[in-house]
Amino acid sequence: MPEAPEDEVFLEVIEKTKHEDERCLKEPFQASLQIFPSAFAEGTPKRDYTTATADCSLFDPSLEPIPEAYSPRRWDATKAATSKYAPIRHLLRPTTPGSLHAVIRGKLMAIACGHHCMTIHWGLEAQLIVVTVEQLQELITCDTPGPNLDRKKAQRLRSFRVPEHFRELHSNPSTKDRLLTVMAAFVGVKHAFLIVDHSRLVRFHIQSRNEVWTAEDLSPNSKTWEGLWSCFNGGPDWLYELPQALQELDRWRQLNLDDSSCHGISILQAMSTADDAEGRFFASFGRRTINDALHHVELHPGMPAAEICADDTLYEAFKAGLAEYMQQFRSAKFRRLVCNRPNTSNPFTFQASLDARYSATYMTVFRKATVRISIPKYNRMLSLGLFDPEHTIGEPYIAKPEHIVTDLDRQYIEAPVLHLTDSLDTYTIIRAKIPTRPGWAAGTVKPAKDHRLDGYKTTIGPANFMATKSNKLNASAALEAVKGKPGRKPKVKNAPGMAGRPRKIPTVAALEKLAQSEERIQQRADATWERWDKRFGPLICPPASGKENAAAPEEAGTISSRTRSNKRSSEDAGSLSLIDVSNILSSKRRRTN
């Protein structure tokens, strides 16, 4: 789901688009809210689900009279007529434009314009897309039933058919119509911001009032601040309210120390669920950022939270490490590398370069097959025995001299990522055994599958949502289409007014490299596992209960090359074995670094 990094990208894209429009139109950016209730979820007989709620107790509808010639869209009016969505009926009419303001808090975002402010909980796969007003009008004319298997329900759960000219050549080969589920839009003079979610799990709460919303109303010091987030149990933001977040963390620590029922909870579980009546303690963290943050602070995800809270030194390092990890998403570098719109006229273009930068720079262990760790980090974790499968975490350890990296010119070392399944379902590079003390949690160990091997599914990062990922280049199909064709490639120009270099037409050599990228990712992961098994010994799966495994390594489940997913034999790879591949990769990195 969208977490703090994706929220920061959405916010920065909004601000950049506002600035561009103000510079072009020579007037302040204004927008009006438009909702599409026909796309809202209905739930099931077993589980009710409500997409939108509203509070209009402080709003006089006469401030936004209905134009004489206006009538709402048929399916929007039908959905709004139900008792569940009665509170949002006043938003079916055209709303008054006003200055647009956006803020984030944790994994939530609030966007206000005119008399209305929407607080958004992104759910699983919702995203923000910027389109021109003309493109929005074109999209909403292609109304169609949704993909629900129940035909009657599909008629009520509407989507918009994506016009064919937005479907890029040699992208997702599926012959099905591409649908876009637009839940709401903030429509300006030139551009509009769409809230899109094909899974319909996004939720939002709209507050309407007689006064126009201002930037001051959306600031942490305002009287309305806490009320913006109370509907989704928000908490202090680790990017913009760091002092308050750290104070709440200290309170969480004391609660853990005072309440013995918390002593059996792992730090992974604690960071995922910890909250109380005053809000969430780890509001900015989601499943992905929790895994990567624990990697950053070099803690095993199954470690009891109580042990961290009971140790002053460990807790202070944990506290400082979380703050340091989250602050990278406010940096100028992050905004420069990641917070950009496509520089083409197609708003659904897959941003391959942005995706590559994000995956390489801002993703570490979560759904990654391997991760590059700095030499100081490697040596520090090595000194604690965290890479030795025969060592137990927390016990004294002396590293072998040949394992210590002393090459000052070397910048990083590549480590394999472990996927701990079962109840933990987490990712780490720590290979050591967990202690037998109560509270420690483990899981069945297997090599992590890289998210880049998941084809056209929604995965991780601001570019990897279904609406845009469907336009990801199918390099194999493109290669078949261009091979043997003479002549120069056509030039590509940016969309009018868009800065940056134009996109390049891939050469045959580039397409060949792209077509083999998934195979190279897997080969690189296998070579890394072979190298680490040779260095530290084969990894033994710990029992899920966390108790010592008395069985022999073969019975306990040694992770070998035979059990790895998509493992290739040396015969399939040609004359090079995986050890040879490992040596070649290592020598190339040494020459590069």
Which features does this protein show?
single chain, 593 residues, alpha+beta, five-stranded antiparallel β-sheet, five-stranded mixed β-sheet, disordered C terminus
Oligomeric state of the chains in view: single chain
Strand content: 15-25%
Structure class: alpha+beta
Helix content: 25-40%
Number of helices: 19
Low-confidence spans:
542-557, 565-593
Largest sheet: 5 strands, antiparallel
Shape: globular
Report on the structure:
The chain has 593 residues and is α+β, with helices and mostly antiparallel strands. It is 32% helix and 15% strand. The chain has helices at 4-25, 74-80, 133-140, 151-156, 225-229, 242-258, 267-273, 287-296, 305-310, 312-327, 332-338, 352-362, 375-383, 466-469, 475-482, 508-515, 517-536, 553-556, 578-592, and strands at 30-35, 52-58, 98-99, 101-105, 108-113, 116-121, 127-132, 143-145, 158-161, 179-180, 182-187, 191-196, 203-209, 275-276, 279-280, 370-374, 412-416, 418-420, 426-428, 445-447. The strands form six sheets. It has a five-stranded antiparallel β-sheet. A five-stranded mixed β-sheet has the order 2-13-6-5-4, covered by helices on one side. Helix 17 packs across helix 19 (578-592). The longest helix has 22 residues, at 4-25. The relative contact order is 0.10.
Show the helix and strand layout.
Layout: H1 4-25, E1 30-35, E2 52-58, H2 74-80, E3 98-99, E4 101-105, E5 108-113, E6 116-121, E7 127-132, H3 133-140, E8 143-145, H4 151-156, E9 158-161, E10 179-180, E11 182-187, E12 191-196, E13 203-209, H5 225-229, H6 242-258, H7 267-273, E14 275-276, E15 279-280, H8 287-296, H9 305-310, H10 312-327, H11 332-338, H12 352-362, E16 370-374, H13 375-383, E17 412-416, E18 418-420, E19 426-428, E20 445-447, H14 466-469, H15 475-482, H16 508-515, H17 517-536, H18 553-556, H19 578-592
Parallel strand pairs: 2-13
Antiparallel strand pairs: 1-3, 1-11, 4-5, 5-6, 6-13, 7-12, 8-9, 9-10, 11-12, 14-15, 16-17, 18-19, 18-20
Helix pairs in contact: 15-16, 17-19
